[in-house]
Amino acid sequence: MRARFEELDYQPTSLGEVSLRRRHDPVAGAEVYEVKLGDEYLMSSLFTAAEVELARLGLASAPGDALRVLVGGLGLGYTARAALADPRVAELTVVEALAPVIEWHRRGLVPHAAELTGDERTRLVHGDFFALALSPLGADSPGRRYDAILLDIDHSPRHVLNSAHAAFYTPAGLGRLAAHLRPAGVFAMWSNDPPDDDFLDLLHDVFAEAEAHTVTFPNPLQGKDAANTVYIARLAAGLR
Questions:
Q1: Does residue 229 contact residue 194 with C-beta atoms inside 8 Å?
Q2: How many Cα atoms are found within 13 Å in the side-chain-facing hemisphere of 178?
Q3: What pLDDT, on the 0 to 100 scale, is given for residue 139?
Q4: Burial grade of 123 (CB within 10 A; 0-12, 13-18, 19 or more)
Q5: For residues 110 and 76, is the Cβ–Cβ distance under 8 A?
Q6: Quick one: which of 99, 74, 73 has its CA closest to 13?
Q7: pTM of the full structure
Q8: Which site from 35, 128, 138, 195 is most exposed, i.e. has the minimal number of CB atoms within 10 Å?
Q9: Rounded-to-integer distance, Cα 14 and Cα 154, Å
Q10: What per-residue confidence (pLDDT) applies to 14?
């Protein structure tokens, strides 16, 4: 009989101790997988609707075929797997700062990991998404541009996991990110907070279009609906 609670892995990282836990939730009546960084919960398999919608809404806004997609943050893989469900996706690169998280997928410790690691379109990269996004990109490097960039790392633009990430949520930071997109390219981002008008204004400063979607989903632990936000921003077709 499987234990009601099991810690599948626990490893130190430069950002703190990261752990993968599996438990049986009697309220939800399901096996729940959770990722923690120190005492903070990063991801739970009990609440994945917004992570899936991040990919669905982001790619629905991306025109064309043979899409090249970049995902910032691997977690339990829900956003990445939802991106692969779009048959237009030709290449998927997932950048994850925590090496153990990539290892969990390669070892099959998280649900449906083989759907990601076994897909030849997928490349898992251990690295700093924000360093990549903020790095300059010259016109001589067209191969590094993407049709869509999907981000799910910080809790929200105002609640970051690392103070170094704050520089990303500025006009200059978002402008650097936009340079990594193809014409009409899409930036989509998950947030745990309600829609933030100030952040939408920042997106409008850089992108031709920007909007916030509220994604609601049932929370069986509280007996009511919960909500996350997915931001979608798109460049004009003639830019970059």
A1: yes
A2: 26
A3: 39
A4: exposed
A5: yes
A6: 99
A7: 0.92
A8: 138
A9: 16
A10: 82
CA dist 150 and 33 (Å) reads 22
**Predicted pLDDT of residue 144:** 75
Q: What are the per-10-residue average pLDDT scores of the chain (240 residues)?
A: 77 90 81 89 89 98 96 97 98 96 96 95 96 70 79 94 93 95 97 96 97 90 86 83
Amino acid at 131: A
So what's the pLDDT on residue 3? Answer: 57
Max intra-chain CA distance, the chain? 59
Tell me what pLDDT residue 38 has: 87
Model pLDDT, residue 105: 97
Angle between helices 197-206 and 171-178 (to 10 degrees): 50
Q: How many whole angstroms separate alpha carbon 188 and alpha carbon 201? A: 15
Please provide residue 105's backbone torsions phi and psi, each rounded to the nearest 5 degrees.
-70, -40
**Cα–Cα dist 61/235, whole Å:** 11
Q: Rounded to whole angstroms, how far apart are CA atoms 41 and 32? A: 13
CA-wise closest residue to 57 among 226, 224, 212, 222: 212
Taking the C-alpha atoms of residue 202 and residue 179, their distance in angstroms, rounded to an integer, is 16
Contact (CB, 8 A) for 58 and 188: yes
Q: Count of alpha carbons within 13 Å of 79, Cβ hemisphere only?
A: 31
Phi then psi for residue 122, to 5 deg, are -95, 140
pLDDT on residue 28: 66
Rounded CA-CA distance 32/104 in Å is: 15
